[in-house]
Amino acid sequence: MQRRIPARAFSFEYIMWMFMRISGLTMSILALVGIGYALYIGARTQMDMGTLLRWTFFPIGTHVAASDIAVLEQWINPFWTIMQYVMILFAITHAFNGFRMVVEDFMGAGWGTQLFRGLVALLWLFSLFIAFNIIQTSGAI
Question: What CA–CA distance (Å, rounded) separates 87 from 135?
Fold first, then answer.
């Protein structure tokens, strides 16, 4: 009996498999860029390590305002706002896709799978809405 080789195609599963790899790499790069830029603009002398990591992964203006930094203008700018949106988009999408993949491994094929995917999509949209709302109302813009 020969092993069946699946045909290469751009199916939903293949696209999501590629997304998981790309989003993991992108989040790692964003974290390194965030740490590097924060250190460049003065975090090495103005922040402790906990504040620096919190700022890197959740660059919201109130995180820096709560620390002892004298000059806040360089920290609250459009670069960090864009970093927030991109990091949140990749992180939430990566997490929900991982959740979908794990649960679908234990589900059989049928209407339940489609219903589950729809539910995950709604929860994903709701989570993005809440996260983006927090970014908008945090005072970082």
Answer: 12
**What's the pLDDT tens digit per position in 86-95?**
888 999 999 9
pTM of the model as a whole: 0.75
Alpha-carbon distance 123 to 129, whole Å? 10
State the Cα–Cα distance between residues 134 and 141, nearest whole angstrom: 11
What is the 8-class DSSP label of residue 41? I
Q: What are phi and psi of 29, to 5 degrees?
A: -65, -45
Rounded Cα distance, 69 and 129, in Å: 30
3-state SS, 10-36, equals CCHHHHHHHHHHHHHHHHHHHHHHHHH
Give the integer Cα–Cα distance in Å for 132 and 3.
47
Tell me what pLDDT residue 5 has.
55
Token pair listed for 29: 């790069």
Angle (CA) 136 55 23, round 5°: 80
| Distance of alpha carbon 60 from the chain centroid | 14
